[in-house]
Every structure is written in C-alpha cells, then in structure tokens.
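Pasting two entries for a bug report.
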Amino acid sequence: MDDDDADASEEEDSGHLCFDEIEVPDGFEFVEKPDRYLKENDQEPLYVLLCAEDADSGHSWWLGRVVKFKPRARVYKYDIKWDNLAQHQQGLSLEKYIEDEESPTDVGGWSLVLSHEGDVPVSSSSSQRFQ
C-alpha cells in the first residue's frame, strides 16, 4: 500500500488497526469460507477482518488476531486481540462471512485472513507496516 493511499486509517483514540475499505494487507490472504467454524488445530496465525460501525464513515474494517477458538461456546466462539493491550470475546456468524474483497458487506461482515509473515502486531502504532 502506498503512503498516499487514503484507504488506510488509524483509530488513534482506540489503538485498533482500521481501514476505510476492505482490503487484505500485504503478506495476508483470504481464507476460503469454512463449512463450519474452525477446528482448534487450524492453520495459524489467523486474523479477522471485521466490518464495524463507525460514526464518521458509517463503517470501517478492523484487523484482529485470532488468539483462541472455543468450539463449544454458544455465542462468543473467538477471542480476538484487536490491539496490543487486551483480547475480547467475539461472536461471528458464518452467514456474514465475506469470500473476497468484491463481496458486498454490511456491519458485522467478516473474513478470516492468514498471515504469511507470522504473528503481526495489530495496534495502530504498528500501522506503518501496512502503509
């Protein structure tokens, strides 16, 4: 991504790594939609791109690291690290899974992405990597 590319933005107050438009950062690739939720031994490191509500633009895309998958949980099957400080339980519906950058999306749409560069920091302080 170029320095003058306006699609990447930082949420300075939250520390989350966000994008204005859906895009897979360099070194990542989309994961094909699973038939069911993950298994505990699926490939790592996995990340989530999630379409979240944004007061300014209507929506933005957050990148977070899948820390743990809990197959027996009813709602919050994923623990996601959205920044370098904490991880959060996240409920993700397979019906809202996004297959690629061309798929139409609404808030709550998400996709798994696989990092080819190992574990990558997800805070906005590390966003120079994506610019």
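Entry 2 (this is the one that rendered wrong in the viewer):
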Amino acid sequence: VAFFLLTQVGAWRGWLVVLYVLQGVGRAVYESTSKGIFADFFPRDSGGAFANCMLQCSTAFAVCFFLSSVLTGPNLAAISGTLSVLTPLGFAAALRLRRSTATACERTALAS
C-alpha cells in the first residue's frame, strides 16, 4: 500500500519517506521510554500501571478526536505544544512526590 501511495503523490515522494521514518522513531521512543517509566513507578503493580497508561492514551486520543471537529489545526498545535512543555514538569513533580512518600514510609518503618 505504501509503495502505491508513493507513486501517486509525485513531489511528496521523498518527504513521505522522511515522515514515515520520523513517525517510527517517535513511536519507538514513546513505546520504550513511556512504558519503562510506568514500570519503574509501579514495580509491584505492573498490570495496573499499564492499564493506567492505556487509559491515558485512549482518553487523550478520544479527546483529540472529538475536539478536532471544533478546534482548528493551530489551536490543536498550541494545546499539544503546551502539554509537551508541561510533561517534564509533571514528571519532576511525580519524582518529588515519590521521594517524599518513600522518605515518609522509611521514617514510619524506623519508628515502629
């Protein structure tokens, strides 16, 4: 199918290959890193962690799908850009929360 499409798009031919490669690289990074982070954060409940990951992905897809009929491309791009900037901040907050929770549990265990 991809070969047939490449013959129909004329001048896009080279750029379409670049687009496929970049999409593949992005997906490889997402699939490995994202799921690895979920596994690290929830080592005792990996089933729940991956269910949570799937829920987040599915919800994001559904919201984007339903908003795509209302919002234009630049608005969706602005939302996506904003969320991509907020992602590292959320990760840093999750790490901080995890460390403080672990420290509180250690203090409780030592007090017992």
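Dev reply: Rendering is fixed now. As a check, the viewer should reflect this: Residues 88 and 100 are 18 Å apart (CA to CA).
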